[in-house]
């Protein structure tokens, strides 16, 4: 009888253990812990380089041409620009920036813009004691610029590796107007007129738009359009060999440019972004 009780008890214990194991198999496994996010060593920092060409636009051209005689009496003079133009500039620049998130980034850039050819012609007429005289002057010079900007961009989403963007910036344009020569009235009066080189810094602003292409996970190529306003510049007085040949004329104009540029951005890391928690469905 005792042996039968022991056998029954052992059978019940074995059945209970088997039921517990079967019940444990029915319970869902514990959720897996999310591994810690990798440390973002580079943050959102990036370097950039750009090259391009700008169609320089000149406006508000002005001249102080006011002939006078040897005694200092001014003529009744009229000076009319018959032609004034500015050539194109090519440029190259570098910069450093930060990608704050997938939508917003900013950078600081510096670039050098090569010399653009400045040309102008003036037809003038003046009178003194009734006779009327006419003259023509031709001017040439070169304008180069160093441009330093702080820019902000909004990326508008990515489709098939292409990200359109818009941006704006403010900064400083440092101009150099070199080799301003006056050939015409100055030459007839005793020599070619020459003005000392002019260096002038102005407030500048830009608006821009473009497309960025993902070359690799860290490298992006940009193709963009930019309008840049670089303020006004006024030349130093033009001087001739003859004291009254050039009348210490100065010239000035406003400078802007429509640029097309090609650039590359290399990112050292990924900007921090929000990652939702991992949810497992059973």
Describe this structure in words.
With 282 residues, this protein is mainly β. It has helices spanning 2-26, 185-188; strands at 45-63, 76-86, 89-99, 104-127, 132-155, 162-183, 193-195, 198-214, 219-234, 251-267. It has an eight-stranded antiparallel β-barrel with strand order 1-3-4-5-6-8-9-10. The protein is elongated. The protein starts with a helix and ends in a 15-residue tail after the last strand. 25% of the residues are buried. Residues 20-24, 36-42, 68-72, 186-190 and 271-275 have low confidence and may be disordered.
Q: How confident is the prediction overall: mean pLDDT?
A: 79
Measured between the Cα atoms of the first and last residue, the distance is 50 Å
Helix content: 10-25%
What is the percentage of strand-forming residues?
over 45%
Poorly predicted tracts of residues: 20-24, 36-42, 68-72, 186-190, 271-275
Structural class: mainly beta
Oligomeric organization of the protein chains: single chain
The total of beta strands comes to: 10
Radius of gyration, rounded? 37 Å
Main sheet properties? 8 strands, antiparallel, barrel
> Would you list the SSEs in sequence order as H and E?
HEEEEEEHEEEE
Helix tally equals 2
Identify the strand order in the major beta sheet: 1-3-4-5-6-8-9-10
C-alpha geometry? elongated
């Amino acid at each position: 009888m005792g042996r039968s009780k022991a056998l029954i008890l052992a059978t019940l214990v074995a059945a209970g253990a088997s039921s517990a194991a079967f019940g444990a198999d029915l319970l869902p496994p514990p959720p897996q812990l999310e591994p810690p996010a990798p440390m973002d060593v580079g943050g959102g920092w990036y370097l950039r380089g750009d090259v391009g060409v700008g169609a320089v636009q000149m406006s508000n051209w002005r001249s102080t041409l006011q002939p006078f005689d040897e005694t200092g009496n001014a003529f009744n003079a009229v000076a009319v620009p018959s032609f004034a133009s500015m050539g194109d500039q090519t440029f190259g620049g570098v910069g450093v920036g930060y990608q704050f998130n997938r939508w917003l980034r900013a950078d600081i850039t510096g670039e050098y813009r090569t010399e653009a050819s400045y040309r102008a012609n003036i037809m003038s007429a003046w009178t003194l004691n009734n006779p009327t005289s006419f003259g023509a002057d031709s001017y040439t010079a070169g304008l180069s610029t160093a441009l330093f900007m702080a820019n902000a961009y909004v990326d508008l989403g990515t489709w098939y590796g292409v990200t359109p963007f818009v941006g704006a910036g403010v900064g400083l344009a440092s101009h150099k107007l070199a080799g301003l020569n006056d050939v015409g009235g100055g030459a007839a009066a005793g020599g070619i007129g020459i003005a000392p080189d002019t260096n002038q810094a102005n407030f500048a602003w830009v608006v821009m738009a473009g497309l960025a292409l993902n070359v690799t996970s860290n490298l992006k190529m940009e193709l963009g359009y930019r309008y840049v306003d670089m303020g006004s510049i006024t030349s130093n007085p033009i001087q001739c060999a003859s004291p009254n040949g050039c009348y210490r004329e100065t010239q000035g104009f406003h400078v802007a440019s429509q640029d097309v540029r090609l650039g590359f951005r290399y990112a050292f890391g990924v900007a921090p972004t929000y990652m939702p928690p991992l949810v497992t469905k059973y």
